[in-house]
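As described in the Methods, two query proteins were run sequentially through the folding procedure within a single session, without resetting any intermediate state between them. The first query and its resulting structure tokens are shown here.
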Amino acid sequence: MTKRERNYGGGVIGALKKFEGGIESLLFNGRWLLVPFYLGLLLGLVVLVVKFVQEFIHLASIALEASLKDTTISLLELLDIVLLANLILIVIFSGYENFVSKIAVAQDAEDRPSWMGKVDFSGLKIKLIGSLVAISVIQLLAVFLEPDEMNTDHVFWMIIIHLTFVVSGVLFAVMDFIADKRAMIDIAVEKAALELQIMEEENGFEKGYAKKLDPTGQ
């Protein structure tokens, strides 16, 4: 597809329009400044792989001597790392596709994740807060498995933070629900207005005839 050339015209107005077009092009291409952030997150996954291997080696070294409780705690730490890695991957894929560019190489890939390309900014927020809730639950469970080392104040604040994540997730979901409902109403209103306009044209009525018959006077 060839890039369509814009005709700005001549004179002062044309020069201003050309300047405006340059600014808009600069702003639009500025989205590529986000790429280093996503590359940094990708490198963060490498660090998590190293930490996962370290934790797994530690678990393997104590597997024969450790109690079930210690083994469970070590497995929860591994699960914590996995959830964090999944969260980072979701942010990388969804953030890049929503704010930078579509990942063309994955369009026809057999291993393309089913959610890829379907998670918008609203869905990304919900997945983010959901992952944080899951991670905080694992942290709480690990603390509860060690009652001898439990600090009451520390556990209290962990519970408060967990509940904050839960409440934030619910509020995000409610706000998105209200926004979706509002968008559906706006679409329905636009569709009804378009149908009235088509009906007026098909029946030879003047434009705005149906609106004049509105008993509410609006």
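Immediately afterward, the second query was submitted; its sequence and tokens are:
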Amino acid sequence: MNVGKNCFIGDPVFIREGVSIGDNTIIGTFVAIETKAKIGSNVTIQPFSIIAKEMVIEDNVFLGPHFSCADAPYVADGEHGLSKNKREVPQKTIVIKEDSRLGTRCTVAPGVTIGKNCFIKMNCQIYKDVPPNTTLSAGTIWK
């Protein structure tokens, strides 16, 4: 794990191996950051959020409380995902470009890129890429 200067990391926060965090970043309490995520500088991640495996969050991004995302497009086969007959799931990185803001309880699907300077209001579900400078109203389902 590599953490930049002047960061604040709440307690408890779960940070997996290979994570990098830029300078002046704030990570609230009860946040989970999965393996090899890259978090830029001047980022705020509010409490109870989940950052996916290998996700990229560029500089000056704000993620509201209860932000969530996934790194697999479907739930694993088998009982509790433990079956030996699981399908192969290609890794699909989520990218949030600089200067974007996502409100409370936003959910982002695997492989999605949120463009630069987007404003996504609370309770949005994002299933496809969002172009730069886009504003989405609260509760939008972006397919």
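The first strand starts at residue 2 and ends at 3. We note this only descriptively and draw no conclusion about the first query from it.
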